[in-house]
Amino acid sequence: MTTRGGFSLIIVTVIAAGRASESAETVAHRLTAECELRSIDKNATQIIVVSEEIDKVRGELGSIDGVDILAQRAACFPPKLFVADMDSTMIGQECIDELAAEVGLKDKVAAITERAMRGELDFAEALRERLALLEGLEVSVIDRLLFNRITPNPGARELIEGLKAAGVRCVLVSGGFTHFAKPIGELLGFDRVVANRLGVVDGKLTGKVEGDIVDADTKRRVLLEEAGDEVERSVAIGDGANDLKMMEVAGLGIAYRAKPKVAAQADARLNHASLDSLLVALLPRA
């Protein structure tokens, strides 16, 4: 049910380890609209809000230390499409920074990465600048990095498994590289992977990307292409400025441990709980 008495419903999910009910009561007291609490378990409670003003509801939610609070329109629930960034979202690393470590330039490259993710630099230009520093690096080091240093963020695999079991299509779209994204996408269970193609000649990086760069516009385009006429039933999650355009058009845009600019503009934030905690917010409970 997405309406009650002619008004739209909004689902607010409060995720808090061991204190969801108490936290939800605090949140409910802040809301001026009619609402009711539905306890899921000790770690999650949902508040059903009768209101057409999602922005007003989000503005009233506020924050509680150690608690994640996500509000979405009931009309967007449950999603049919989940689109995720890779670096620092589905995995805990920035792959280009790990490549740079192989040539002793991690600090330099990581500083550029950080500024690009904060939206302080043009993403495409920053990518070209960083890649040029890696020219001549043996492409074989990527397999070693995948084995030794690249790790999924907590709950990433469980999140994708849960969404797919519920019939949600999952797409990984990354400003990183297919050499990383394809095996990570396969490991986590994504249905489709979109990422940049590293230029390689004679087993060494050329320092360039083959074809068009996957940037914020690409991410937005992929989401809209995948969502078709049901974009409101889509979820996008990311941490950097190049994720904002896809998050803005999605039915629900979630910032994961995000840069300040991204967190400020996102519909919701996941700052504390693991990725699989999103299942309680995105899928109906038995």
From TrEMBL:
Tell me where the signal peptide lies: none
Q: What class of enzyme is it?
A: hydrolase
Coiled-coil spans are none
Offer an example of a GO molecular function term for this protein.
hydrolase activity
**What are the entry keywords?**
Amino-acid biosynthesis, Hydrolase, Magnesium, Metal-binding
Task: Name the Enzyme Commission number(s) assigned to this protein.
Answer: 3.1.3.3
Highest taxon of source: Bacteria
Which InterPro entries does the record match to this protein?
HAD-like_SerB (IPR050582), PSP (IPR004469)
Q: Does the keyword Hydrolase apply?
A: yes
The identity of this protein, by name, is Phosphoserine phosphatase SerB
Q: Which species is this UniProt entry from?
A: Sphingomicrobium clamense
